[in-house]
Design brief:
16 strands, alpha/beta, Aminopeptidase, 2 domains, 390 residues, Alpha-Beta Plaits, 11 helices, eight-stranded mixed β-sheet, six-stranded mixed β-sheet
Amino acid sequence: MPIINRIAAFHEDMTAWRRDLHAHPELSMQEARTSAMVREKLAAFGVDEIINGMATHGVVGVIRSGSSDRAIGLRADMDALPIQEETGLPHASRTPGVMHACGHDGHTAMLLGAAKYLAETRNFDGTVYLIFQPAEEFEGGADRMVQDGLFARCPMDHVYGLHNWPETKAGTFLWRTGPVMAAVAFFDITVTGRGSHGASPHQGVDPIVVSSHIVGALQTIVSRNIEPIEGGVVSVGSITGGDAYNILPERVVMKGTARWYRPEVGDQIEAGMKRLVNGIAESFGARAELNFFRHAPATVNDADATVLAREAATAVAGTDRVQQMRAPTMGGEDFAYMLEAKDGAYLMLGSGRGEDDPLLHHPRYDFNDEVLPLGASWWATLVEQQLAKA
């Protein structure tokens, strides 16, 4: 069973939805327009129920057919990133400093396509929950939806997620049992010294020098404190301090991220950062404060649910285009919170156009509209296989 013909027939509609979303991106917890568009489309498709308000802008469309008490959840994320778009496309972001650089516009459009098809055909026996989640990038939208009673209000057997993956040829599905994406933490480190003139550094305590030592030392946590067979990353992405050629500032602020798979490794990383940050600052006569906040646990696929997800992908794309991931990625995904609460699986859908195709979170990234029918067909096939009529 290849791409579903009926879904292929409204490929142009899905493309229009996707490009409209791309032109009007909204940051985490600000997805008011996106949420309203999703509700409008679901109502027009004739879904049986629309649940609003979970995690503020979350939307769940409900489609029922037959008499079975079986149920499945399909999830797409809706938020954009704080990045200035540089694509120059006709449908480029109209919001300065905000763009869909991770393809959540495509995820939403694919799930809307599946919703339209499922509401029309109802070729299944049970209940489908179409979960449109806000705030995946920041603010933990998946966790908020779970805390707001997602699985209590919408009891389901499994929940599934899908992410576009431009590193892989378009049309290829990637799967993996167990950890598929890493746990994510962000951190702020504030180093406070004593400002002075650059010509008289002995009269102050230079927080830039202190920060430089901290950056180097942080790299020893993974290389020297974590068992080599484990995965872990500590990366500093921003260093801010001072604004003059000849003045040593009072304060430097560093921002970064840490990643891991096993919770014990996350605990080791956090403890090691506290030890190094405080110890190095004190050794220079400065003070330092670490704010370490965990965004999401590791995304871990259930073995049985992954088999079902692979079967649906194979039905849509064929055996040759369904491949096992070589290893989990250090990227993160707050769908992990849903998988902690409910068995399910998270697959990647290749969307790459070629070697020069910009990757996720790049200012020139744009979702590949050619894979829209493939993703929507996978969603629909999951439903028709798992909730098959007797």
